[in-house]
């Protein structure tokens, strides 16, 4: 318990909490959820329970500290890294469906773990609209087409910008989630009487996306660069980048009336709708507000392509290579 008390005190300090890198954060969240779900902490006679030969005492206090510590991680660690870690943990636990009721211990553990990951995402998403609005207030209120780079892409773990969000990284993580577990699979699990939690994991991730779209509206398109790059890597030749002179141009000087560029925007949008569930969700949701918003403008799409080519190496490591981290992890739920 002394170790838990120490960790609790450490992560009450935002300076320390923000320092935690994504890989370590995901491992810590996984360990906390596993400990919270430990059946020995739910025993009626906890003072006499044994787990692995170690006497468990004060289980109620341990459980309370674990829950408090997990809340401090969610509140004080880098908010973008928290979202990426939780969505990846949800992916790991829910990639394989479980019948209702679960038939094996593994299914029971995976479903309980997935439910806890969803609860953490729900809690973190409650203030997301307000957080995004405060972060992008000037751009939203001024009705500009593209947010300046330094405002759009804050440094991860920055103390003075917390809880600023890297929208591009969250959308990319969502894209990966639905790529791994496609919509066709979720449709099979919709019946909650047959499948544990039905399609609740899908709707949980889409709730995060909806909070982003409902705050940023059309501005969200400039944050799709990592999705574009992911599609170009997995489907070579499908997406054609804009001409070099267009990429090198300032967004304010682009001629959106150029028929050639208008066709390029339409063609790129149509192809991404075919292969990205997240791209389709953005378009469908925005179309309910305005048909003009259902696809990116020329300036927004060029900005996204530019970011897809110029993403910093440390951000690439934390998002694009997250699959390598999780696949090498021995814990599977």
Shape: globular
* Major sheet strand order: 1-2
Output the helix-strand order. HHHEEHHHHHHHHHHHHHHH
Separate helix tally: 18
Q: What is the helical fraction, as a range of percent? A: 55-70%
Mean pLDDT: 86
How many E-type strands? 2
In what range is the share of β-strand residues? under 5%
Main sheet, how many strands, which sense, barrel? Answer: 2 strands, antiparallel
| Distance from first to last alpha carbon | 26 Å
Outline the low-pLDDT stretches: 44-56, 312-333
Coarse structural class: mainly alpha
Cα Rg = 22 Å
Describe this structure in words.
With about 325 residues, the chain is mainly α. Helix content is about 60%, strand content about 0%. It has a two-stranded antiparallel ribbon with strand order 1-2. Helix 3 packs antiparallel against helix 4 (about 60-75), helix 3 (about 20-35) packs across helix 5 and helix 14 (about 260-275) crosses helix 15. The radius of gyration is 22 Å and the shape is globular.
Task: Compose a concise summary of this entry.
By secondary structure, this protein is mainly α.
Give the helices and strands, then pairings.
Elements: H1 2-10, H2 14-17, H3 22-36, E1 50-51, E2 54-55, H4 59-76, H5 79-94, H6 105-125, H7 128-142, H8 149-152, H9 167-180, H10 183-188, H11 200-216, H12 225-234, H13 244-247, H14 259-275, H15 277-287, H16 298-310, H17 313-319, H18 322-327
Helix pairs in contact: 1-4, 3-4, 3-5, 5-6, 5-9, 6-11, 7-11, 9-11, 9-12, 11-15, 12-16, 14-15
């Amino acid at each position: 318990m002394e170790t838990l008390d120490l960790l609790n005190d450490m992560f009450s300090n935002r300076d320390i909490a923000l320092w935690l890198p994504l890989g370590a954060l995901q491992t810590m969240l996984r360990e906390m959820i596993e400990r919270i779900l430990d059946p020995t902490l739910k025993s009626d006679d906890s003072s006499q329970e044994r787990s692995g030969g170690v006497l468990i005492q004060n289980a109620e206090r341990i459980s309370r500290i674990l829950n408090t510590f997990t809340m401090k991680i969610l509140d004080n660690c880098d908010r973008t890294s928290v979202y990426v870690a939780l969505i990846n943990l949800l992916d790991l636990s829910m990639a394989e469906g479980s019948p209702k009721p679960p038939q094996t211990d593994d299914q029971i553990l995976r479903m309980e773990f997935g439910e806890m990951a969803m609860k953490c995402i729900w809690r973190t998403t409650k203030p997301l609209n307000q957080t995004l609005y405060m972060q992008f207030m000037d751009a939203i209120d001024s009705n500009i087409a593209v947010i300046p780079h330094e405002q759009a892409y804050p440094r991860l773990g920055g103390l003075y910008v917390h809880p600023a969000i890297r929208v591009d990284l969250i959308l990319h993580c969502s894209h990966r989630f639905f790529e791994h577990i496609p919509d066709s699979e979720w449709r099979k699990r919709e019946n909650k009487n047959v499948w544990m939690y039905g399609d609740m994991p899908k709707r949980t991730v889409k709730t995060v996306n909806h909070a982003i779209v409902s705050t940023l509206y059309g501005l969200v398109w400039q944050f799709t660069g990592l999705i574009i790059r992911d599609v170009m890597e997995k489907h070579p030749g499908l997406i054609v980048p804009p001409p070099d002179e267009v990429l090198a141009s300032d967004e304010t000087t682009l001629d959106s009336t150029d028929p050639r560029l208008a066709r390029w925007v339409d063609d790129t949008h149509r192809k991404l709708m075919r292969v990205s569930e997240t791209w389709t969700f953005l378009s469908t949701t925005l179309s309910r507000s305005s048909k003009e918003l259902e696809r990116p403008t020329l300036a927004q799409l060029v900005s996204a392509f530019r970011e897809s080519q110029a993403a910093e190496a440390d951000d690439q490591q934390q998002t694009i290579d997250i699959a390598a981290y999780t696949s090498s992890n021995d814990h599977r739920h």
